Amino acid sequence: MKTDNSFYAHGINGIKLEEWHSLYDHLRKTADIALKHAQKFDDSNLAYLCGLLHDAGKFSEDFQERLRKKVSGENANRVDHSTAGAQEGFKKYPDLGMLLSYCISGHHVGLPDGQHLENRLNKKIQDYSDFRKDIQLPDITSNPSPLSREAENYQEQGFMVSFYIRMLFSALVDADYLNTESFFSPEKALLRKPGLNLYDLSQKLESYYKNLLPSKTKINCLRQEVLQQCNKKAELERGLFSLTVPTGGGKTLSSLSFALRHANKWGMERIIYVIPYTSIIEQNAQIFKEIFGDESVLEHHSNYDPDETDDLDLKQQKRRLATENWDVPLIVTTNVQFFESLFAAKTSRSRKLHNISKSVIILDEAQMLPPDLLLPCLATLKELTKGYGSSVVFCTATQPALEKRKDFPTGLEGVQEIIENPKQLFKELRRVNIYQLGKLKLIEIANKINQDTQSLCIVNRRQDAQELFKQLNDENIRFHLSTRMCAAHRKKTLKIIRERLSNGLDCQVISTQLIEAGVDIDFPKVYRAMAGVDSIAQAAGRCNREGKLEKLGKVYLFTPPKPPPPGLLRIGSETAEEVLRHEKDPLSQTAVRRYFELLFWKRGSDLDKKNILDRLAMPDNKLLFPFKEVENKFRIIEQETETILIRYNEDCSSKIQKLQKGYLNRDLQRSLQSYSVQVFNHEFKELHDQGIIEELPNGWWLLTDETIYHKCYGLDLEGSKSMSTLIY
To answer: What's the domain range around 232?
Structure first.
């Protein structure tokens, strides 16, 4: 190849021109990195071509003049440098050029909608002909491997092609970032050196198990059996798996053991542990960090945003860099972060996608997949296993009926159950009996709880929780939990509850459903307002959890005067009531299966409420995908919220003082999350209009009227200000 060092990709003021980033060097090295990224899932040369073509427009004199002016601090007109490579690829490779064009044209601004791309392919641009003198484009000798499968229909075909474009785009933009970073910040590039690999993590997990104190209780013996079956089934070929284990049966570490052994068996590169709620992700991530060490575990969710800059220590810097492209062996993330990234158009969210290939993906609490987006989520998981060398584990106590069948033709095929006899395991791990009380007034439930020494009651509405709490007689033994309490408040309350339970002291707890989300707690008696079968199972998992009672624990189902709020909670409750007319035991495998079949059947087309799959279909074989439109439509959390800071204790007050002085780094921001409460937009507006919140620097809002933060309920927007039982 001929090289011309008079063209530059990037420059830095104060260094010699000949030391600027050579454009030829940038294109070649970006192509090499993109090829390496894509080799995990593709054996064609498309990623390499994307790297060579992406900055072809920088060979124009207009761009080189702009670069010189920009570096020297002069005003410079913008120059479109990405359309040239898109046009070049489209002309030279008529069959696959459109795939290249999407990636190249969007490598700075994100994947475009197809109609916009068509316009750019016809756009008049600056002369970049020197590109052809310096760069020789190779021939494409094979079609992309992920596209070699036959699709059943135009919808599946469109999804398959659009998904490949996203992966190709990810390989390019990450390669571009990494090579550019090596020029501007070589010290950052050095921080990306790999640490422990999956084999190392597997050895650490085995050592952890060996060092555990032996316990021969029935529950622990059954947990050990679950672990052994997971280790055995890890030898199976890559694909779709289910791990159906009752709550308290050791799913978390057993699924991780399966994933590590499975990944090492098949040469896979990372484990991605996906959790439905941010409220429990830190808890799980902390367990993993204790076993594997901080640097081997990446915790990535909405409370950890890598875009901000601040003073970080070495470990924090490495974690920050890892959030950009998930280049670590173990990632703990949320449904929102995982699935929304897979449907994103933005470069920042797309960088990580190529590293999802050749991964073991564990979906913890798989029944919590977003129902309104269930079909596009399933299509994504199928594509990852069919074309990108990944395996998926659906891990849950109530396995949703996701397999393909006559009334669910878009379901999954070939899901392998890891547990050899789930029905027998559920029978042996049975620790409760469930009793149905029918319709009861809240005062009737309160009267029952008042007779208990230790009991937990879970309801669907915050108002019901407060009303029940007020009707309990003894203020010294009653406790309340809801998401309107800041995390520090909930943590403190849970600590007191656990201490009372472990010491055999009286303890009555009223909670919303948040306590069902991975909270390790053990009551002899639980009351549950009618809810979905999966929620009932989760509630039952808080009763006799360790099997220490002489007899089975007792779980009482009741129907309160008011139904759950509209939406999935109400649909789940109504569906469960329908199932329980025919099935006495809501925890039976028959009842669970029937529940999910009815739930999906009732929702019908709402399983793809935003028509994501239709938007990505190819009815006329045209590759006009609305990537930006799909990104905007694919939202797991629809109702937007605002964050309110609560001056909960002295630690929080000192942190707020720092914030008021304009000081903010990542550690401070993360610690403030423990003192915040989410409110809906209309509630935020009301608080703002009443003048009882104050805006702080960096976009935070502080509650200034502390009379509406109750020491038991948390933020009490429905209560009276005369109820001045404050946190101080």
So the answer is: 198-424
DSSP 218: H
Amino acid at 5: N
In what helix (H) or strand (E) does residue 667 lie, and over which residues does it extend?
Answer: helix 666-673
pTM above 0.90, yes or no: no
Residue 245 sits in the same domain as residue 144: no
For residue 628 the two structure tokens come to 């930006």
CA distances from 489 to 284, 652, 669 (A): 19, 11, 18
Question: What's the number of domains the chain is made of?
Answer: 4
Q: What is the pLDDT of residues 603-613, one digit of tens each?
A: 666 889 999 99
Place of tokens 């029905």: 423
Positive or negative, the Cα torsion across 660, 348, 288, 517? Answer: positive
Contact of 508 with 536, CB cutoff 8 Å: no
Q: What is the mean pLDDT of residues 231-245?
A: 96
pLDDT at position 2 is 40
Tokens coding 361: 């993906």
> Which amino acid type is present at position 212?
L
| 601, part of any domain | no
Lookup: tokens for 623: 């590759």
- The helix-helix angle for 154-184 and 23-38 (nearest 10°) equals 130
Q: Which residue's entry shows tokens 């809501």?
A: 586
**552 and 418 in a common domain:** no
Angle between helices 314-325 and 666-673 (to 10 degrees): 70
Among 191, 207, 241, where does a domain finish? 191
- Tokens representing 108? 């700075």
Q: CA neighbours within 13 Å on the CB side: how many for 399?
A: 25
CATH number at residue 209: 3.40.50.300
Q: How far apart are CA 578 and CA 583, in angstroms?
A: 9
DSSP string for 636-653: S--S-EEEEE---SHHHH
**Distance, CA of 565 to CA of 85 (rounded, Å):** 52
Q: Please write the tens of the pLDDT for every residue from 165-190.
A: 999 999 999 999 999 999 998 888 77
Judge whether 725 lies within some domain: no
Distance, CA of 441 to CA of 451 (rounded, Å): 16
Domain end, chosen from 139, 173, 191, is at 191
Residues 650, 562, single domain; the answer is no
| DSSP-derived pairing of the beta strands 701-703 and 693-695 | antiparallel
What's the pLDDT tens digit per position in 374-400?
Answer: 999 999 999 999 999 999 999 988 888
Residues 109 and 348: their CA atoms lie apart, in Å, by: 10
